[in-house]
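Case study B.
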Amino acid sequence: LSLRAVNSSRSAFASFLLAPLFFQLYEAGGGRHDGELCRCKVLMKSFLGVFRSLPSLEKTVEKCLILLKPRSSRLVVQLHCKHGVTKTHNLAFQECERLQAVFDTQSYSSSLCAPARVLADAVVHFAPTLAEVTLGAGPGDKISLRNYVEDEAEANKTMVTELWLAEDEFQAVAVTPGSQITFCLKELRGLLTFAEASNLPLTIHYDVPGRPVVFTLDDAVLEVHLVLATLSDLESSLQRPPTNNVSNLAAPSDDFADDLESYMIALETSTDQEASGVPPSPTFPLRTQRPAESNQEEEEEDEDEAAVPGTPPHKKFRSLFFGSVLTPGEPGPAPTQEVLAEDSEGEY
Amino acid sequence: MPLSAQHPASGESFVLSASLDNARHLSSLLRAVHFQDHATCFATTNGLRVTVEAAKCVQANAFIQAEIFQEFAVQEESVTFRINLSVLLDCLTIFGSSSLPGTSTALRMCYRGYGYPLMLFLEEGGVVTVCKINTQEPEELLDFDFCSTKVVNKIILQSEGLREAFAELDMTSEVLQITMSPDKPYFRLSTFGNAGSAHVDYPKDSDLVEAFYCNQTQTNRYKISLLKPSTKALVLSCKVSIRTDAQGFLSLQYMIRNEDGQVCFVEYYCCPNEDAAEAEL
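Model:
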């Protein structure tokens, strides 16, 4: 059984793969006439509504039965509780395409493995509302965790918390010295809670800034992946050409203008990756991660701006605009584009 | 300090006068029926009944029998008045609503009759508050005409079993459907909301079921917004009796034990929706 979710700005993807042995009883493939896998999606709110109160669930529920009824388009979740009480929820579902993030942890340069408790204890020091955090490999084989401050202007007013973890806290450390990545902490908290409760070690795979970071939990019957977009770091990309031939459009300011001309100029000049001075383009904000492929309606892989719920409309517009300008023949982002998660269909 | 010493000048008679050492015995019951601002109070020598109605479809009654009071005197055959229940509750809980053991608010209630306000004298820790609440013309109340001979189905359940179900009712559903049957599913609460349908089933042999008298399979739908307030009474109660008559009218009777172990009752009556209920998935 695979459970997957992606957030609305497509900067976080989670997948839980549960082997048949995880369950007391597992029967797959029952009622479908064409024998194909049944793939459906359910509104998160509806599904979570079934498991509303975790403490009371633990106290009263003895068994949970999940049944898919393709013919009536219902996902049935039945809770068998104490005193013989049965709670049945018939949730409407929609069929959908495969939702899969593309990532390859084998090619990643750094990885860490630690008991979930180590990271859970570490993040306790950061405010619950904190959006981004930077994980880095520091001198002396220490791993650092520090909150990310967006602006230089803010840096003087914001409290910076930095935490160092010694190598021996981890079960495995294989990191590139000086490497660091910035990702959204909020999206990770849920997984950390689960990892702690299930007592599994957490593995972190990361590469250069801009490439997603992957958090993995592995067990005999359970495989969990959380893929988060990371902030692409302007300076480091200028020093080291990106290995996958994708240009990072430079932009020191957060302002952008719908100025096609300067965009085109920036594109042409940035293809020469060894060039020491890529003219700063006012068109795109620093946060631009991988630009989307031209012939796909991909939304920008923006760092999830947790402070602002959802992606602001003007940015979305820009990413589509961006997409339409790029034609396959033009010099620009290489086709080996990292599509983090494909659209299962159009606007939900 | 006995509050009767604070009685206003003698010579004025009250048609209703009552004393209660712990005002919470009254306020908690009134809260259980507080889903509208106004209530009708009806007092006889047997005790006090407070009635709240809504939409001409639902009626809740709280009964506080004379034995609960330290003093309860009614000079006429019956005394009836309409009063703002929100204000009455605010006054009864004027010293705060937290229930610390050992502290309680003493109450003396006096009513001179038609046209006069209800007087409340509340005392806690030596501090006395006097409240005068205007009364209104009593309105005609619904008569559900629900007597035990007309009952078709009856189930008595331990309240703890229903509390979670009522608290988690899918409020995006317009109706609460109640099925009572001598056969499976025996007793079922269903909602049909945005997420889909949800059912909670109680088998007749569950240890939550104290009594199960179902003769006929009945499925009735009630407006969920009208029944949701009954959750307050459910939370206070230890047992609930669920009865329906041939027309599908619903009677919910809650047995509530107060801090001193005395038993009071709150009941809710509700009309079924007119359209014939069809059981969904």
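The domain at 110-234 of chain A is CATH 3.70.10.10 (Proliferating Cell Nuclear Antigen). The remaining cases will be described in the next quarterly update.
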